[in-house]
Amino acid sequence: MKFLQINPADNVIVALKDLKAGETINLDDNTIELLSDIPMGHKIALDNIDTKSNVIKYGYPIGHAVSDIAKGDWVNENNIKTNLDGLLDYEYQPHSVDLDIAYQNRTFKGYKRANGTVGVRNEIWIIPTVGCVNGTIQSLAEELRAKTQLQGVDAIVAYPHNFGCSQLGDDHENTRKILRDMVLHPNAGGVLVVGLGCENNQIGAFKEMLGDIDPARVKFMETQRVEDEYETGMELLNEIYEVVSKDVREDVPVSELKIGLKCGGSDGFSGITANPLLGVFSDFLIAQGGTTVLTEVPEMFGAETILMNRCVDRTMFDKTVFLINDFKDYFIRNNQPVYENPSPGNKAGGISTLEEKSLGCTQKCGKSLVRDVLMYGDRIKTKGLNLLSAPGNDLVAATALAASGCHIVLFTTGRGTPFGSFVPTMKISTNTPLYNRKSNWIDFNAGTIVENESIEDVNERFIDYVIAVASGEKVNNEKKNYREISIFKTGVTL
Question: Are residues 283 and 233 part of one domain?
Fold first, then answer.
């Protein structure tokens, strides 16, 4: 197959392989001669599209033509521009949803925590309250890994960051919230929190944020108060290790899984293969009683009404409107364009406007009702589909998903990336060439959906794979120890 028309209402089709000028393709009774070379993943005009007329993809306008586009021509960022402009008024028009997905009573092997939560990993984390002790925590992690050889634990990881001091207002609170969320995350069997002593993010105040914790699993060290931070740190870590290393996996229903849905659209295949796959998976998991979380708010712009109309009630609708407008205000306050999101890589992959990117993004959450809306740093409280406030930046957004309580982040990509957050970060390729070229990055290939396999069959394999990962199978970022955090910064630094 050379091309795909996603929706019968579309006036563009998508090239499934590189096509040459002069080639002829046929769609029903329409014969189209290609007027230029068309790269894989890019759009072709089905008919003449006049200047200012809408370009339709996914059944929705993705922008308007800024010049006449001839039948068979290449449709890209040079001849199409966004229709979006400024803040919008929204009206709640609720849609009914019927998932019609059978309950399968499936389980995974997880770690049951004393507070009732469940983890998919049993790791020891070293978390700094301030960037000044980054070197210290990395040395401690190296020493503990060497001493224990990871016997009885899945990983021992230090998570350096640049913040915790010289911050004010929202930035200071964002740092505290994300670090709090990490300490409380069930994938951590134990945590050593390391401070300096003079930072804004004081350990005493931070402890109050944590609430009730198990002192055998969460310990604290203020390096200015101890004579030898390495000796004291290792003593505390040894105590944590003795407890954590005895934890074992048990059968847990998949209803306990919390899964993050990441990356809106990186190429022209995103909205055809990987993102629809995550949508089908998300609906499946929610039908089993589980939870998924969609973020990257700027990659909802232009498709936000789809989400708003799937809100379970008006309260959720109002929260979603605030989620969208709050992020638009963030751009406006900083004198930045609201709707210039597609990156150079997105455009090279076939995405021309933010609407096009967003319509691909929203497919990751399937058809389920929106049950809750979380602001940045909030933790999941409600099962089902959640929306989370975070930017489109990959590492910031993935960190926010993990911090909300997601056990695993599912990251769709048409361009490829090696990074991982502090939970397993599974890469799902939108196309087979990427999967074949970057097998050291990519964990699962969704490209077969446009080749020889139905989305239903791919989803069955994908469900099995996610359960295997939740039960301990490592994804590539874990195998290579690519684990990082990035905290959202919006204000000044002192």
Answer: no
Torsion of CA 58, 59, 61, 65, to 10 degrees: 80
To which H or E segment does residue 243 belong? helix 229-244
> Distance between the two ends of the chain, CA-based, in angstroms?
57
At 306, which helix (H) or strand (E)? helix 304-308
Residue 352 within any structural domain of the chain: yes
Last residue of a domain, one of 248, 274, 289: 248
Q: Confidence band (pLDDT; 50, 70, 90) for 321?
A: very high
Domain boundary pick from 248, 267, 284: 248
Predicted pLDDT of residue 341: 66
On the question of pLDDT at 383 being above 80, the answer is yes
Please check whether residue 104 lies inside any domain of the structure. Answer: no
Read off the pLDDT of residues 225-268 as tens digits, 9 standing for 90 and up: 999 999 999 999 999 999 999 999 999 999 999 999 998 567 88
Ranges of beta strands (E only) in 60-212 are: 60-65, 74-75, 80-81, 107-112, 118-119, 123-128, 155-158, 188-195
Q: Which one, of 301, 262, 270, 295, lies nearest residue 415 by Cα?
A: 270
**CB 494: neighbour CB atoms within 10 A?**
7
Alpha-carbon gap, residue 179 to 129, rounded angstroms: 7
Q: Identify whether residues 340 and 195 lie together within a single domain.
A: no
Q: What is the pLDDT of residue 283?
A: 98
259, 310: one domain: yes
pTM, 2 dp? 0.95
Do residues 224 and 331 share a domain?
A: no
- Secondary element (H or E) of residue 12: strand 12-15
